[in-house]
Amino acid sequence: MGNNFGQANDKAVQLSILRTALSLVETAEEGGTLVDMPTSWPDFFEFTPGGKNSMG
User: Fold this and answer.
1) The predicted structure's pLDDT at residue 52
2) Which residues are CB-contacts of 1 (< 8 A; sequence separation ≥ 6)?
3) pLDDT of residue 43
4) In whole angstroms, what is the distance from residue 34 CA to residue 51 CA?
5) Per-residue model confidence as pLDDT tens digits over 9-37
């Protein structure tokens, strides 16, 4: 949960993440393959189920 595709309206980061995910579909040799991307969010994001999301 949270910002899996980056911050809202950050189209460049969202597109980069989507392209990496689609590339993995072609290159992964087995299910459950994970890829670490060198992407970082400029702001802290905390997801609180059933509550308000807080940025801090």
Assistant:
1) 60
2) 47, 49
3) 72
4) 29
5) 889 988 999 999 999 999 999 999 888 88
Structure token digits, residue 10: 């950050």
**C-alpha pair distances (Å), 31 with each of 11, 22, 26:** 28, 14, 12
Enclosing domain of residue 21: 11-55
Q: Do 55 and 43 form a contact (C-beta atoms < 8 A)?
A: yes
- 42 assigned to some structural domain: yes
Q: How many residues does this entry show for the chain? A: 56
**How many domains does the chain divide into?**
1
Give the pair of three-digit tokens for residue 20.
Answer: 């990496």
Q: Is residue 1 part of a domain?
A: no
